[in-house]
Amino acid sequence: MNTITLTGVVLLAQPYGEYDKRLVILTRERGKITAFANGARKPTSSLLAAANTFVFASFQLIEGRNAYRLISAEAAAYFTELAACQPGVYYGFYFLELASYYGQEGLEAEDTVNLLYVSLRAITKGVLPLALLRRIFECRILGINGEFMFPDGKHPASPETIEALNYYLYAPVSRLYAYRPSEKIEGEMTEIVRRNVKRAVDRRMNSEVMLEE
Questions:
Q1: Chain-wide mean pLDDT for the chain?
Q2: Separation in Å, CA 40 to CA 50, 63, 144
């Protein structure tokens, strides 16, 4: 059995059996993986805190044929404060679900993992309105995956809006949410990003229902 260490974020944590959990983790090194955390639902388990959605950690795992087994985790951030961010927590779930949509096993995901970290922090800090945060996140993750398309002649946009889109596509991730556009630019950008998501993503995210409610 090979023991490896991967860094990433828990996208999904589900009960499995009586005491275990099934985790979907997006890792920098190997993309999206499935891992089982034995006994993680027991109050005395060393994995109790780390085997939860939104946790960023360094995960020690045993590699199996079809899945991994989680042995230990050194958490860098738990984001437990998200639960108190209403409706911000639902935006957080949406970000994770969209990242899972694009995540693939064996494909490095460092850019997406970093994007998730700064985006969840932006929710908890309240740096921008949530609706704008969502569109910025969508713009960037589409760009990471080569899916973003600039407006054509059918749907023209102002030079200022194009400049804003370029910022959100290419700015250092640490500065992604440092710029807030004007109301007019935000309106144009929202419509452009919305059309891009509708074209690129072939299904509706379950968390979008929660956002609308």
A1: 95
A2: 9, 18, 33
